[in-house]
Automatic annotation (TrEMBL), chain A:
Belongs to the binding-protein-dependent transport system permease family. SUPFAM superfamilies: MetI-like. Keywords: Cell membrane, Membrane, Transmembrane, Transmembrane helix, Transport. This is Carbohydrate ABC transporter permease. Coiled coil: none annotated. It comes from the Bacteria. Residues 117-308 form the ABC transmembrane type-1 domain. PROSITE patterns: ABC_TM1. The chain crosses the membrane at residues 7-25, 116-140, 152-173, 185-206, 227-252, 286-308. It is found in: Cell membrane. It is a multi-pass membrane protein. It comes from Thalassovita aquimarina.
TrEMBL record, chain B:
SUPFAM superfamilies: MalF N-terminal region-like, MetI-like. This is Sugar ABC transporter permease. It comes from the Bacteria. Belongs to the binding-protein-dependent transport system permease family. Keywords: Cell membrane, Membrane, Transmembrane, Transmembrane helix, Transport. The chain crosses the membrane at residues 21-49, 79-105, 117-137, 181-204, 231-253, 289-310. Residues 80-311 form the ABC transmembrane type-1 domain. It comes from Thalassovita aquimarina. It is a multi-pass membrane protein. It is found in: Cell membrane. PANTHER family: ABC TRANSPORTER PERMEASE PROTEIN, INNER MEMBRANE ABC TRANSPORTER PERMEASE PROTEIN YCJO. Its main location: membrane. Pfam families: BPD_transp_1 (PF00528).
Length: 322, 322
């Protein structure tokens, strides 16, 4: 009976797992297949990888008048249209690629995907670094220093925790527009520079650090700022790691805010914006490259997650600790 | 600048005063909280009573006009319906599935980690990318979903499942293009993406339940698994449930990525999936009707506040910070 129960549980969980995984399977599968295979729904997971003709490569290298002139010596005694036909055959032969290679190279060549990825890295990292630089000293002051107004400041932090970012998006957009900052890196980063959650989290963590440690540092003649960075920061590394994961995952995947403040300027696109643009331009046959783009964008975090699951789950569910 | 001009002695004394130092350390955080969180929230409130638009030379006080529009125009009525439907479907489903998955996984002997990892994958993945993958899977002709369904045509399944028989006879649904299905598809993606997060929180909650409680319940005559769940597990998970429901609710109100990616022209077929966040983006940014966008923002804030107040009421006795 218990054996049967266990099997039944596995059956239910496997069914759920199947539904959860199918889109990932499909995404990677499409990113490997040729348009014809996608169109007809054949080829299993990776397709047959039979050579296909890259029509865009053919388009780029279509022989023109001067090519025909120079090639005439190679085809003696044939008229121009024949020479042209021969040359076209050669170009088509040269433009044969494997579908997987075609999809991934087009993902990077059809759109500046590399630039999008770089933007994603720049934006997420700057956000995290600034959040820490702002939050750590405040968290230290709130946990280890006694000063007039401390309760009020902490009360403000607790109140701000309740403000959802989406509720202030529009006024911040207006403010940035007034300052002429729409379509800049600043617009992507500035609204996130303050993480009240980060302050709260680090403050809770610092409360557990013994006061003796701080006192000893003061005895050694360290200034308060030095204590924050040279004493408190090293003790906070585990909490900071979790916060880093929380922050980086949220901002790498964020689409709402970049959509609001970046309009049209492709050089500032973050990965999700780039993918969205790709989808908007798509002419119907580029599902393969589109899915390759999606795979490239999704993979870094998924890979990191699979390597350090415990840390990631801890980081993402941090908000559960409030 | 001022500090540099001061004579060295005063500077040293200023630096030594713990009061000043504490304020200096929290100053950047305080300033940013004020500028990025509190001021924008108040300006959203003010803007919602005006007809402000970017580039306009003047700003008129329009009283409650924007709010009146929200409650009288049919497109906003659709927005409220779509958003509330989404919340009322996604929250119970993703909380229920999260709890179910956690209970099943927790009772397993082997294979816990693998299910946990799989179910958490969608939480990590860029939602925008996954929405586009789902769109491709739901493509009426080349999509995997309809292909799979069509395999059931002409088999015994058809006789058991009238819906499928209808699809086989009159063509499978076009999903995102059909106003009877579009909103449900968006809900489905929301559940698919979010329940793993809830599962992880529930798993953490389950490990916190002492084994003795189960033994005691068993001695009191709670023999069936259901009795044990009702008497021990469910009450013990109370705080987790309150938190999970709150955070899922707030997130559900913020749904944006999926609808923006799936319905580029806005709101889906007959505006059946016209969500609040999308409305803020469309009115406030695309159509430059900041006043209306701000009014929707305030409505969103109101919903979030109601949820938060309920949560606070429910957890008041248990949570204490300092």
């Amino acid at each position: 009976m218990t054996r049967f129960n266990e099997l039944l549980k596995h059956a239910v969980l496997l069914f759920g797992a199947l539904i959860v995984i199918v889109p990932f399977y499909q995404m990677v599968s499409y990113s490997l297949k040729s348009p014809a295979e996608i169109e007809r729904g054949i080829g299993g997971f990776a397709g047959s990888q039979a050579l296909m003709t890259d029509e865009q490569c053919v388009g780029r290298n279509t022989p023109d008048r001067s090519d025909v002139e120079t090639a005439r010596t190679r085809f003696p005694g044939q008229d121009d249209s024949h020479v042209l036909g021969q040359l076209l055959e050669e170009v088509r032969a040269e433009c044969q690629v494997r579908p997987a290679v075609f999809n991934y190279t087009s993902a990077f060549s059809e759109a500046p995907l590399l630039c999008y990825l770089l933007n994603g890295v720049i934006v997420t990292l700057s956000i995290f670094v600034i959040q820490v630089v702002v939050a750590l000293p405040a968290a230290y002051a709130l946990s280890k220093l006694r000063f007039w107004g401390r309760e009020a400041v902490f009360g403000m932090v607790l109140f701000c925790l309740l403000i959802p970012v989406h509720a202030i998006a529009l006024p911040i957009y207006v403010g940035l527009a007034k300052l002429g900052l729409i379509n800049t890196y600043a617009a992507l980063v500035v609204p996130w520079t303050i993480s009240v959650f980060g302050i709260f989290l680090m403050r809770q963590f610092f409360m557990t650090v013994p006061d003796d440690l701080v006192d000893a540092a003061r005895m050694d003649g360290m200034g308060e700022l030095a204590i924050v960075w040279r004493v408190m920061l090293p003790t906070a590394v585990p909490a900071l790691m979790a916060f880093a994961i929380f922050s980086v995952v949220a901002h790498w995947n964020d689409y709402f805010w970049p959509r609001m403040v970046v309009t049209g300027d492709r050089s500032l696109f973050t990965p999700p914006l780039g993918l969205r643009e790709f989808k908007a331009d798509i002419d119907g046959s580029l599902y393969g490259p589109m899915m390759a783009t999606a795979t490239v964008i999704v993979t870094p975090l998924i890979a990191a997650f699979l390597l350090a699951q415990r840390k990631f789950i801890e980081g993402i569910t941090l908000s559960g600790m409030k | 600048m001022v500090a540099v001009d001061m004579p060295p002695q005063t500077r040293r004394r200023a630096a030594r005063s713990p009061q000043t130092m504490a304020w200096l350390l929290s100053a950047p955080a305080l300033a940013l909280m004020l500028l990025i969180l509190l001021v924008p929230m108040l300006s959203a409130l003010v803007l919602s009573f005006t007809d402000y638009s970017l580039g306009a030379t003047e700003l008129n006080w329009v009283g409650l006009d924007n709010y009146e529009k929200l409650f009288t125009r049919s497109s906003y009525e659709k927005m409220l319906w779509a958003t509330l439907t989404y919340v009322l479907v996604v929250v119970p489903m993703s909380v229920g599935l999260g709890l179910g998955a956690a209970l099943l996984i927790n009772s397993l002997g082997r294979g816990r980690e693998i299910y946990k990892t799989i179910y958490f994958l969608p939480v990590m993945a860029t939602l925008l990318a996954m929405a586009i993958v789902w769109e491709l899977m739901l493509h009426p002709t080349i999509g995997m979903v309809n292909r799979t369904l069509e395999m059931g045509c002409g088999t015994w399944i058809e006789s058991l499942w009238p819906w499928l028989a209808d699809g086989c006879a009159n063509g499978m649904p076009i999903w995102l293009g059909d106003k009877d299905y579009a909103l449900w598809v968006v809900c489905f993606i929301g559940i698919w993406q979010g329940f793993g997060f809830n599962m992880v929180l529930y798993l953490a909650g389950l490990t916190g339940i002492p084994r003795d409680l189960y033994n005691a319940a068993e001695m009191d005559g709670a023999r069936s698994a259901w009795e044990r769940f009702r008497l021990v597990t469910w009450p013990a998970l109370g705080p987790t449930t309150v938190f999970v429901v709150t955070i899922t609710c707030i997130r559900a109100f913020q749904v944006f990525d999926t609808v923006e990616a799936l319905f580029p022209r806005g709101g889906g077929p007959s505006k059946s999936a016209y969500m609040m966040m999308f409305a803020i983006y469309e009115k406030g940014i695309k159509q430059n009707l900041i006043g209306v966008g701000a009014a929707i923002t305030m409505l969103f804030l109101l919903f979030v506040m109601i949820i938060t107040v309920i949560q606070r009421r429910l957890t008041e006795r248990k949570v204490h910070y300092s």
